[in-house]
Amino acid sequence: MAKKVILAVAGAGKTYHICHKIDPGKRNLILAFTHENIQNIQKELCDAHGCVPELTTVSTFDSFVYHHMVLPYEPSIAEHFGCPQIVSRGICTIAPPSQTIKTSKGKTIANPLYKKKDRLAHYVTMRGQYYCATLSELVLQVKKNRESLIKRVAARLNLFYDCVLIDEFQDFREYDYELIMTLAKQLNDVTLIGDYYQHSVSATNNSGKPFKKKTNDVCYDDFVSELISVGFEVDVTTLNKSRRCSVDVCQFVTSKLGINIDSCGENIGNVIWADEYATEILDDNQIVKLVYKDAALYSFRSMNWSYSKGDTMDAVCVILTDRFDNLDIANFSDNGVPVSTLNKLYVALTRSRGNLYLIKASTFKLLKEKYLKP
Amino acid sequence: MNYIKSLHIEGFRKFSSLDVEFNEHMNILVGENEAGKSTILDALKTVLNQQYRNTDKAVLRDLFNAQMVESFYTNPSVKTLPRIYIEVELVLDPKKKSSSYFYGEAYGKRKQQDEKFGIRFECKFDEELGSGMEQSIIDGKIPYEYYSLTWTTFANRPYQMIKRPLNFISIDTTNSSTTPSFNYYNRTLFSSRYDEATRAKAKNEFRSKLEDALAATNLPPISDNRKFGIDGKKVVLETILSVYEDSIALENRGSGMESLIKTQIALDKANGLDVILMEEPENHLSFVTLRKMLQEISVQQENSQIIVATHNNMIASRLNLNNVLWITDNSVKSLAGVKNDVAEFFVRADDNAFLQLLLSKKVFLVEGATEFLLIPIFYKQQTGHTIEEDGISVISCNGISYMRYIEIAKATDKRIAVITDNDKKKDRITKADTFNKSNKLQHIFLGKTEDEWTWEACLYKENKEVLDNMITVQPGAEYKFHGEDYGFVLGKMLNNKVDVAYQMLTSGVTFAIP
Predict the structure, then answer these.
(1) Residue B449 gets which letter from DSSP?
(2) Is B366 helix (H, G, I), strand (E, B) or coil?
(3) By CA distance, what is B102's nearest residue in A?
(4) Fewer CB atoms < 10 Å away: N or C end of chain B?
């Protein structure tokens, strides 16, 4: 029973590590959050082994839950909800009706379309499609007497896979996270890999468990002890050095954001405040500009902070927001900045394998007009 | 080891409903003509090979169960339309890549139940596609064109042959090796023998060499910008491959050799075939070749699962009758329960009537040739019908203990009348009595007293006068039998059993039946 969590820093080579460390002769299951993650993993596997090893399966988490935990067990699901045979028609990505809605006067009232979680309609649309958003909740819900679906699904995974790896596990929230944790308890060999500080960066999942308890943020240490308490071995050393970021960039991130990140020293690059020659940087198409939001509005080569997650660039210029105008002063404090914003900044600051240019919001505002797309 | 565990059929050809459990290795399907042996093989091919996937829906006319069609005609409605449902349960190695694709609880009663590996096939009227057909259905027309055929795994995933759960080949000798069946064999062998990378490489190289070869002919172009080129779709490597042995293509060998070689190749472990279907392998084979084939099969049967449909006695007994699946109306009986020594006996005894026993409704089991000749007459005399009319066979044990046959009769609930001698042994009589008391379907008939010690003795006792007149005795001959004197006429009967029986048979005289 090997249960491992590897906490990595940005640019430490999570994907590289996963793909090169697997035994291609074993039946590996690699799950990740997005299709982009999947493509990166497949590419890296090809680099490492010449192709995706025959017995290795790479899938998005949602697709896997649907194909391996829901579809083969539709008879149990129907029985659980006391419905006749389900004839399902695939999956849909529209959001299920929320529990409450706001009236035109701003009052919160119960949503008449909302279906309670003990009804099949909570998980399946009128047309017989599963809501993608409630798949994990469904798997956690179904049981008959003491025989829970989750238990059978865990047995299934143990039957068909020798090792289960879940990449970017900090991206999973609420029921997805709960499903992973519940499953992990019963799996023979599971490894979760992720970066605590990159949580809440992807737009779809910026709230809730496991990074919030009630309304308080869960800090790094508490998060680690929580994992240890449920039986994981937590590895914070294997991937604690960034292969991507230079020493200078790592020191800057550590001192300003209080996030421990070391550099392998493989890449050379400096942190450069570019406010004095901002136009020169903004005009240079070799340098990718990372903005907090609305990257599509600008004529220069740009990307939103959160979208840059997972990418590596040769040179980056981060355009800061108002809140970080004094990031350059020695005793900068991030007190009061939402964790999700801090994490997004962390992601943006750690994209470059070379120089990291910084431009303050106050500087950019003066030049902005010129760079707006017509 | 991957194999077919069981088959469930509803409304397919002969069967309104049928369940078959298969053995892991050897399976011999035995049944009368039309009992449904080939229907079972066909059902497996329909599911695993997606047979009929692209054929015209008119074929459904032949596939539907006649009873179901009949009951639709008596009460036509959308609900009573005939449908076909077939489920194949498999045993797969979970270590193989795609096995999880077949594993789930979407089979049978569709309730919470243990996961199994398998594929289900359904052919039914598609109500969405066929909306508007309701009136013509009520008028008693089956809308074949609006039927949909679906293949789904027990994990509720669509089944496509590319995701083959096991390597499956069918060796069919019933129709001679005309191209389609042969090509299917070659193609299957090609894909099970080589892995995907090897196949892709061969196909790729073949195509590019072919283009080079054409270029090398320096064929003048048609016009400035037009020339002939090779259409890759017309030369797909698998479709033009053939197996060669000593530079002779397999299809150019005699049909007998062809099926022997096909079988040999299929059995070879290196070719990685999990399941081999054989339909009447005895066709086109001489006695000697058949024996050779059976020898190979029985030596290599552990490598794969073999399902053979046959009429041939030797096949059934040589391959061990424990492996026989006996098909009757809507049921299949396994002979796995027959005792080992009995099965072993039939493997060794070449010339036995084991299949005849299985294929008849009722059987007279007799000691030798005399009874064999006379019983049919006596039967007709007694009942007014011939034994053929009543589906009864007479099997002569030729000295083999009838108890072995009884074992099989018990396992298959056959009605058997054994006619045997007590050989003046008291304990035989008591044994037979005990047996008869505990068995309803099998009965042992024998002389009740010591002077009725053999068939001839009984006959003579009842027909003394007629026989004394009919049988001429050579003067001076003693007609002693095993050194004992039974009188001249009975003595001659005992010494010339077959001749006398034949004389009685052709005499036209009506005899009293013992």
Answers:
(1) S
(2) strand
(3) A72
(4) N
CATH 2.70.98 fits B3-23+34-166, yes or no: no
Q: Which residue has the tokens 């070749």?
A: B289
Is B105 within 8 Å of A73 when comparing Cβ atoms?
Answer: yes
The model's pLDDT over B7-17, given as tens digits with 9 standing for 90+, comes to: 999 999 989 89
By residue count, chain A amounts to 374
pTM score: 0.78
β-strand partners of A58: A30
| Collapsed DSSP state (helix, strand, coil) of residue B44 | helix
Nearest CA among B41, B24, B44 for reference residue B92:
B24
Binned at pLDDT 50, 70 and 90, residue B74 comes out as very high
Which residues from chain A sit within 8 angstroms of residue B109, using beta carbons?
A: 75
Question: Residues B281-295: pLDDT tens digits?
Answer: 877 777 777 778 888
CB contact under 8 A, A72 and B95: no
CB contact under 8 A, B110 and A75: yes
Partner-chain contact B103 A160, CB within 8 Å: yes
Closest CA of chain B from A57, distance in Å: 9
pLDDT (tens digit per residue) in B351-405: 566 667 777 778 888 877 777 778 887 888 878 888 777 778 788 776 666 777 7
User: Parallel, antiparallel, or unpaired: how do β-strands A100-102 and A108-110 relate?
Assistant: antiparallel
Q: How many beta carbons lie within 10 A of that of residue B23, not counting itself?
A: 20
**Can you give the pLDDT at residue A206?**
47
Q: Which two tokens stand for residue B80?
A: 């009573």
pLDDT at B428 over 90: no
pLDDT score of B177 more than 60: no
Residue intervals in chain B for CATH 3.40.50: 3-23+34-166
Residue that is written with structure tokens 């550099």 in the block: A263
